[in-house]
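Reopening: structure tokens for the 2-acetamido-2-deoxy-beta-D-glucopyranose complex, inputs below.
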Amino acid sequence: MQVFTIIALVFAACSVHAKVFFREEFLDGDEWRSRWVDSKHKSDYGEFKLAAGNFYGDAEKDKGLQSSQDARFYATSARFEPFSNEGKSLVIQFTVKHEQKIDCGGGYVKVFPSDMDQTDMHGDSTYYIMFGPDICGYSTKKVHVIFNYKGKNHLIKKEIKCKDDELSHLYTLILNPDQTYEVKIDNEKVESGTLEEDWDFLPPKTIKDPEAKKPEDWDDRAKIDDPEDSKPEDWDKAENIPDPDAKKPDDWDEDMDGEWEPPMIPNPEYKGEWKPKQIDNPNYKGTWVHPEIDNPEYIPDANIYKFESIGVLGLDLWQVKSGTIFDNFLITDDVKEAEDIGNETWGATKEPEKKMKQEQDDVKRKEEEERTKAQETEEADEEDDDDEDEGGEEEEDEEEDTKDEEELSESDEAAKLQDKDEL
Ligand SMILES: *[C@@H]1O[C@H](CO)[C@@H](O)[C@H](O)[C@H]1NC(C)=O
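Re-run output (same inputs, fresh job):
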């Protein structure tokens, strides 16, 4: 058989066997409740509702799970036929919309082993993969990519920035059997690389040779004092001298004022500390480089990417200001299929959604402008008789602002705790 024929056959076989393991777009009303299981691990988890939000591309298709209570943990999950990603690509994809201008909260999914107890899912439940955006204040705006390897969670070493606006965004993680990965946002690559390089799954390949030591006579000074140079004899001068131009004031009374002394001024001839000229060190050997040897503890592993029994996708996260909508969950082994579905769902939504938001923003801005105008007219009328009251109002406003900030920093703490829980 010709090589081309073989390649063609392999491609054909691959596309035939492309598989969608999980797809959830919430298109059948309340039926999602039969597919998603709320955790009972805590009694006060926040409630997810089915909603398209305040602006959308399509009132029905854009319905997704929306967090509906502020300052809550959320924990719900859906199960699918367990599978292993051995020898295949694994694609995890979903959309997130933080239409509430999120201050602090998770927008990520966790993918669990099939034996996870959904009714008891919580921050410490063992997961295979955690993927998606996380925002807290101004400092944390990143995409998590965490893999569990031999019982330990490993965070990606690269910083991937997430979207922080109020529109829907498509997040895609691709994990390949050749141990490469790719992260896409809105169907565009934002990061890629290899598991070995971008996570610390394995000990380093090489280590500093413990037997090697810098020789004692190793000279790593590039420059040295010029031995020929010496301090000029007239170098040392006082730093300050009596001002030669100062004169004793006419009315100076030695009995009353004591002996007159001229004030001190900086000496123009003062040259500071003498330092010898620097010359190239003839014995310079360069910086000593510690020789490396193969790390005896490094054992390559071609199966870091492999998960035995993937079976549950969950939302297990904390949010301060609720309103995030999760939609278009997809787990497949086909990169192209995922891109297609991303285009059909998020791709079809994004423009009309943006337009609707723009229109709402315009209306709000006009209302705001009119309110300000009305207020200004009112204030101008009252200006003379009501100055004190206005001052009082401003102070109250400031107090409220401070309170908001305090609440946010408290939530920061809570989120950090939650993060710690997960790591
Ligand atoms: C998805 O949409 C983008 C932008 O329109 C396009 O470049 C890309 O080819 C599409 N992907 C697929 C698989 O159709």
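Residues 389-423 have pLDDT under 50 and may be disordered. The pocket of 2-acetamido-2-deoxy-beta-D-glucopyranose is lined by residues 187, 336, 339-340, 343, 347 (CB under 6 Å). Marking as resolved unless the reporter disagrees.
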